[in-house]
Amino acid sequence: MNNSILPISEQSSNVMDFLKNAILILDTDYRIIYLNPACEQLLEVKKEKVLLMNAYDLFPDAPEDVRHIENTVKYGKPVKVRRMPYQFGKFNSYFNLETHVLEENGSIIGALAEFSDVTEFVQKEEKFKFNLEQMAANIILLPEGKGVLPLNQTIIDDLEIELITEKVLISVSKQKLSSLIVDLSSIIEANQQFFHSISGLLNALRLLGVSVAITGMRPAVAQEMVTSGVSLNKYDVQVIRSIRDAF
User: For the STAS domain, which residue ranges apply (predicted)?
Assistant: First the structure.
């Protein structure tokens, strides 16, 4: 039992008590030596009930991949984790976590974990991504088995183009489209990966028997396509100046 870590100075504990981030300190026996009010709130515990309790006993069902402070004590290595899923038992959260080794005279006497709840941020990000995925294959249906796929910069910047391609193919097949207009008028810039993925999409559409027209390509994007070495000629694709001209 390491007693040197037990008497946390009154000044230090007072400072940590008012920190917005949660603070948890373990000694080398994995006992909880200190936790601030923010930590009590996030872990849903009361300080007077868990002080000097072994962390493994407090949360026996916690998976190994969230036991970073215990492993910091065990291996003497600090850890920094972003958006760590903290999902077991009653918990369904995401934490940003950073651990620190506590030493005295060159020997490890414990570890400190500083963490914050980013669940709301992660949920909003996941919802935003889900909405983008829905928009990625948001094909506007036209009469006679035709459709328009308006791509925009936000979608290609924030989603993997392979995911967009997959969702477009599923949507085209589900809607039983015979022709598709891919409108690029909202694409301001694109890289080589984008053009090669577009090439893959066009090839897949051709195999599905879907005729394709590309509209609204900006001069800068057209130049980038030429530089990328991707050619549309082999896919029998119509290239039209604007979507209005396509109609």
Answer: 164-247
Closest CA to 72 of 117, 103, 38, 94: 103
Helices (H), 137-217: 153-158, 161-175, 192-207
Q: Per the structure block, which two tokens stand in for 44? A: 């849903």
Distance CA 89, CA 51 (A): 21
pLDDT, residue 1, reads: 47
pTM: 0.61
Cβ within 8 Å of residue 4, ≥6 positions away: 104, 109
Domains of the chain: 10-117 (3.30.450.20), 123-246 (3.30.750.24)
User: Which residue's entry shows tokens 């709130």?
Assistant: 41
Using CA atoms, how far residue 73 sits from 68, 78, 114, 115, 184, in Å, is 9, 9, 14, 16, 54
Question: Do 186 and 156 touch, CB atoms closer than 8 A?
Answer: no
